[in-house]
Amino acid sequence: MATVALKFYSTSIGKKVVMAITGLTLAGFLLVHALGNLQLLWGPARLNAYAAKLQSMGPLVWAFRLTLLAAVALHAFSAVLLWLQNRASRPVRYQVQQYRETSYAARTMIWGGPIIALFVIYHLLHFTTGHAHGTFVKGDVYANVTVGFRVWWIAILYIVANMMVAFHLYHGMWSWLQTLGANHPKYNHWRQIFAAAFAGVVGGINIFLPLVVLLGIRK
Predict the structure, then answer these.
(1) Which sequence spans correspond to the domains of the chain?
(2) Is the pLDDT of residue 36 over 90?
(3) Are 170 and 199 within 8 A, CB to CB?
(4) Dist CA 164 CA 203 (whole Å)
(5) How far apart (Å, rounded) are the C-alpha atoms in residues 69 and 75?
(6) pLDDT at residue 172, rounded to an integer
(7) Mean pLDDT across the stretch 106-130?
(8) For the chain, what is the HEC assignment?
């Protein structure tokens, strides 16, 4: 069974399927995470209670974290292998490249991924461990978020990074459906709308929250 799986993974379609499954896992987490962060709008009691409830799940939290870590690793590893494979199959670059069936998001995926990874590391150090937060208070998520986003350059960093995440999600959701067979001229328009809506919701929430604090709506 393992041999068959490895043989399938060695093919381009195998790597794309792994990227689709892991990408869907990560996209689902981002959506739930963004919706959960909306608790900020209801004040400290609501947000801190929500965070405490998540932490109270104990082993389930770590199982979830390990699953996400494995998904990130497989997603990144498969992306790099596909990129190297594509470069090897076309050692001489075209003098004039025509981007008819792709988008800006698709063309920058290989560079956007590492940048987003660096942002995620900073985000964890900022709001999870507190190593990158000057006044971090363990358990007081509301205070950590509002104090953190009151620093204008940090708020701008989060806004720009989440714009990149939205671009990445847009292409990712489009590609996920295509990889799993939902590719037909009759339905591609709806696939594009779905990808844009999904990326817009996640990116929009994550951009809106720093603005809420930066503009003084939440103090």
Answers:
(1) 12-90+107-214
(2) yes
(3) yes
(4) 9
(5) 10
(6) 84
(7) 85
(8) CHHHHHHHHCCHHHHHHHHHHHHHHHHHHHHHHHHHHHHHHHCHHHHHHHHHHHHCCCHHHHHHHHHHHHHHHHHHHHHHHHHHHHHHHCCCCCCCCCCCCCCHHHHCHHHHHHHHHHHHHHHHHHHHCCCCCCCCCCCCHHHHHHHHHCCHHHHHHHHHHHHHHHHHHHHHHHHHHHHCCCCCCCCHHHHHHHHHHHHHHHHHHHHHHHHHHHCCCCC
Give 92's contacts (C-beta < 8 A, 6+ positions apart): none
Which whole-number Å values give the CA distances from 64 to 6, 55, 57, 70, 200, in the listed order? Answer: 25, 12, 10, 10, 25
How long is the chain? 219
Q: How far apart are CA 73 and CA 20, in angstroms?
A: 13
Q: Which residue has the tokens 């990808």?
A: 195
CA geometry: angle 130, 167, 201, nearest 5 deg: 75
User: Does pTM top 0.70 for this prediction?
Assistant: yes
Cα(83)–Cα(218) distance, rounded to whole angstroms? Answer: 43
Q: How many CA atoms lie within 13 A of 148 on its CB side?
A: 24
Q: What residues have CB less than 8 Å from 207, skipping those under 6 apart?
A: 158, 159, 162, 163, 166
